[in-house]
Task: inverse folding
């Protein structure tokens, strides 16, 4: 299965029709989910209207973690099995993950002001999420700083795998340490504590974020494959001359 | 219901989050389209890439 998708030509044929579908689905789900969360979902009985921030904040947090996990798996495949598209996939996913992590931090800070009375607190969840964002930035900076692409891919993959230790720390930080941030209310033992009237728009937004990630990553991968083909052709010409 | 939301004391905290999310998706989408068009055009106009 993995070897099947390691072929760039096969990926280009497959992504030529799956990428527009993912982009269209993301646009449609955002058109449904954004107004649903902003105007039609009920207010929270304790937090009031400010709980509406959840519909843009929580999916950003989930997928910032999910995308980093995807990058770590791709990095491992690139290092161990030399999967031809692994580093391309990890590199294309990183800007999306970094933006989701930044969105999570900013919207979380805005939500914190009316809820906790502060824009920022150096507690375990907020700090570990900031570390995740900085890891994304470091990963992208490493790719940009090294000219030799094979070396850049190897070092970026090692950095990505080292940074993966932060993922369980972000997830379990609210259980392991005292935190201002609430504990898990959906992925928790005993099932979700959220009412379906709030869960439904949240799931629509989570799917929208995922579809956007899929479309943007496939677009980034296609652009990178085209760029490598142009670079390889230029190299062949230079050698022949 | 909408009037109740936009006149609530939390509205100044809510709308910037949604505006930021929309701006982020627009920016990521435009960046992806520009990059993809640039390199696809370069690859298609380069005979040696065999597209």
Result:
């Amino acid at each position: 299965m993995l070897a099947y998708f390691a072929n760039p030509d096969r990926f280009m044929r497959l992504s030529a029709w799956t990428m527009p579908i993912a982009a269209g689905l993301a646009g449609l789900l955002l058109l449904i989910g954004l107004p649903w969360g902003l105007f039609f979902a009920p207010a929270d009985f304790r937090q009031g209207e400010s709980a509406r921030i959840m519909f843009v904040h929580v999916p950003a947090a989930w997928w910032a973690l999910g995308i980093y996990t995807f990058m770590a798996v791709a990095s491992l495949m690139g290092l161990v099995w030399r999967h031809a598209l692994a580093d391309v996939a990890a590199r294309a996913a990183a800007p999306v993950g970094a933006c989701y992590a930044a969105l999570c931090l900013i919207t979380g800070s805005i939500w914190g002001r009316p809820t906790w009375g502060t824009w920022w607190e150096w507690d375990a969840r907020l700090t570990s999420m900031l570390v995740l964002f900085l890891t994304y930035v470091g990963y992208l900076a490493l790719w940009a700083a090294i000219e030799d692409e094979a070396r850049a891919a190897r070092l970026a993959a090692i950095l990505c795998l080292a940074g993966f230790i932060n993922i369980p720390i972000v997830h379990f930080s609210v259980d392991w340490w005292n935190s201002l941030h609430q504990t898990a209310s959906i992925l928790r033992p005993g099932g979700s504590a959220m009412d379906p009237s709030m869960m439904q728009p949240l799931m629509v937004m989570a799917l929208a974020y995922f579809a956007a990630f899929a479309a943007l990553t496939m677009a980034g991968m296609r652009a990178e494959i085209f760029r490598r083909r142009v670079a390889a052709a230029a190299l062949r010409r230079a050698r022949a001359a | 219901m909408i009037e109740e939301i936009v006149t609530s004391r939390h509205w100044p905290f809510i709308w910037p989050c949604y505006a930021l999310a929309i701006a982020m998706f627009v920016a990521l989408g435009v960046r992806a389209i520009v990059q993809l068009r640039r390199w696809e055009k370069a690859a298609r106009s380069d005979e040696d890439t065999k597209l």
Remarks:
- Chain A touches chain B at residues 23, 26, 30, 34, 37-40, 43, 48-50, 52-53, 56-57, 60, 95-96, 99, 102-103, 106-107, 110-111, 113-114, 212, 215-216, 219-220, 222-224, 226-227, 229-230, 232-234, 236-237 (CB under 8 Å).
- DSSP finds eight helices and no strands in chain A.
